[in-house]
Amino acid sequence: MSKTGESVKDIRKRCAQALLNRNWITKQDDPELFGYIRAQYQELRDWFSEYCGFALLLNRQFAKLEKAPGQAQNWMGLDGLSEPRDYALFTYCLWYLEGKNEMDQFLLTDMVEEIREYLAGQDVFLDWTLYAHRLSMARALKQLKALGALAAVDGDESDWARAGHEHNVLYESSYLARYILRRFSRDLTTYDSIAAFEAGTYPDTPEGQLKNRRHNVYRRLLQEPVVYDWQWSEDERYYVRTQRHTILENLAGFAGLEGQRYLEGLLFYYPEASGEMYLFPTGRGVSDICLLLAGELRRMLARAEGGFYIEEDGRIGLTMAELEGILLRLKEKHKLLWSMQHRRARSSELAEEVLAHLEEWGLASSGKGGQVWIYAALGRWNGDYDVYGGDE
Fold first, then answer.
1. How many Cβ atoms sit within 10 Å of the Cβ of residue 171?
2. Which of 89, 287, 311, 387 falls between 20 and 30 A from 371, CA-CA?
3. What is the pLDDT, as a whole number, of residue 368?
4. Considering only CA atoms, which of 68, 45, 40, 70 is closest in space to residue 55?
5. Does the structure show a pLDDT above 80 at 233?
6. pTM of the model
7. Domain 285-380 has CATH 1.10.3210
8. Calpha distance 330→388 (Å, rounded)
9. Three-class secondary structure of residue 59 per DSSP
10. What pLDDT does 275 receive?
11. SS3 assignment for 288-308
12. Where are the domains positioned within the chain?
């Protein structure tokens, strides 16, 4: 038992959740959790290796789980980076930091000039007199600071982005910069597609294929909000159905994920809110609107209103115009409880924001010609306001 009365099993769950949801756990920032991970290292390492193919790194300073997606998704990018140029500069900043030791100090102007000269030798040209190029570099640097790869001793890159060489920043490098990129089984230049990254390196044997299938299933269930039966390959779907009880026991006992088999697939949830993870519904107002939409669609189906029906795979099809109409009715009913932004939003803007939020959480998708698909998992919610009638 721990000082807080937690069992070894509960501590292991806490460690697993932190490793899955954080970039790393450092001894300096969280000494207690770091100590727990060190004590549980062998069990954690073996489980993640066996079921996910993830490597657990541990040294005297930090612990890091080297994660990889089972299937890459748009929302899996870094929050602070928004354009391809941002990611490219983020990578070249890491290249620059490879030549720095821990706590080495350097100026932003020296860094950007060395990166510019190196890229010019590769026939890639940056112009730091252009605001767009400086802004991309500033976003990359802010992301590196957020990850702990470097620290600003004096100055801020936002001032440099606005005014160029009139401002400078003094940075200090961190040992963590060397561990941001995960290790790969072969040279990166030999990969020619995202699918090649996702496939990994497995022997072309029945055992290798089984391991590949198991790793992909567990990775997706642990890292994606929801995976429906129709989103698996035929082999993966067979594995999920035949190994259902083992999967449920493993994810509940090790990661604290409770699961249940529904018609649309094997769905998991965390029974309690945790600061380690980002859960749906979120604290944003758009999540509230999505819950209201779920409840309204449920009522419309019960009344056979709007001509909606549930497809065999559990989806509901409607047009963007129909979605706008439903949200407009909800706004008229509940607008006094909505934020000023959502009260003032045009119906098209509101529908686009709601749809984007649902897509991020695997609860909807958009198709050609304004087609919208609401997925079955959204029907597990039924949102309404408890204390407000909406007609006042």
1. 26
2. 287
3. 83
4. 45
5. yes
6. 0.86
7. no
8. 13
9. coil
10. 67
11. HHHHHHHHHHHHHHHCCCCCC
12. 8-66, 76-179, 196-269, 285-380
